[in-house]
Amino acid sequence: MIDLKGRRALVTGGSRGVGAATALLLAECGADVGIGYRSRERDAADVVRQIADRGVRGFAHAADLGAPGGTESLFARAARELGGLDIFVGNAGIWPVEDVPAGAMDDERWARTMRENVDTMFTTTRAAIQAISDRGRIVLVSSTAGQRGEAGHADYAASKGAMISFVKSIAVELAPRDITANCVAPGWIDTEMCDVPFAGEGRGRIERTIPLGRIASARDIAGPIVFLCSELARHITGEVLNVNGGSVLCG
Predict the structure, then answer these.
(1) Residue 65 in contact with residue 124, Cβ under 8 Å?
(2) What is the pLDDT along the chain (251 residues), one digit of tens a residue?
(3) What residues act catalytically?
(4) Topology at the third CATH level for domain 8-241
(5) CA distance linking residue 9 with residue 204, whole number of Å
(6) Edge-to-edge order in the sheet of strand 85-90
(7) What angle (nearest 5°) sits at the alpha carbon of residue 47, between those of residues 52 and 135?
(8) Is 153 within 8 Å of 147 (Cβ atoms)?
């Protein structure tokens, strides 16, 4: 039902997990897809190979989006390879795995999380706004933590909450160009990032907190992202689409 033929997409954090699953699903729907990644060259090359197997154009570009020139190089590559941009999925970010109460959190951890999750979100989305065509789509990957908070991870929760406020702001700014801007807010996802909390009996404990009784796959998150990139969602903007199996019921 979703036809993205002729659309040109860029996904950050695209070498693994949700980013890779999103890139591949966009390609399945007919879009040409570029991915940004930091260091996993082999994984990124495998994603590009799978994109090509779907009969569309793809590329991977290594860039540290938190470093000077990183964002600029990624978007310059997208312009060369794709000739423009219609879809931007901002997925790059970190989740510091260690629980640290806010009162004990040092400046370095706070600053790193803000740099990786907020500053890079701003610079990449700003570049996307400048590059994207009218009737474009912007989707940023937030988190349930950005809505309800997360004890021991106040830095992460604050960064993802900032993303939600940011997307609501740009949704109004971009509406005259018929560009939509939305967030997807996942709960727990079966990806490498969550290996530590899933270890031992952790996975079972977490599954028991989810009404649907299972942890989302990366593709479970990619589907709602691609929906928001499609014409089916053309009248949705400034929204937060929760994908968490019912574990966090936010209005």
Answers:
(1) yes
(2) 899 999 999 999 999 999 999 999 999 999 999 999 999 999 999 999 999 999 999 999 999 998 999 999 999 999 999 999 999 999 999 999 899 999 999 999 999 999 999 999 999 999 999 999 999 999 999 999 999 999 999 999 999 999 999 999 999 999 999 999 999 999 999 987 777 788 888 889 999 999 999 999 999 999 999 999 999 999 999 999 999 999 998 86
(3) 156
(4) Rossmann fold (3.40.50)
(5) 36
(6) 58-62, 32-37, 8-11, 85-90, 132-141, 180-186, 240-243
(7) 70
(8) no
- DSSP string covering 32-79, please? EEEEEESS-HHHHHHHHHHHHHTTS-EEEEE--TTSTTHHHHHHHHHH
Domains of the chain: which residue ranges?
8-241
pTM check: above 0.70: yes
Residue 43 makes CB contacts below 8 A (sequence gap 6+) with 15, 16, 20, 37
CB 211 within 8 A of CB 246: yes
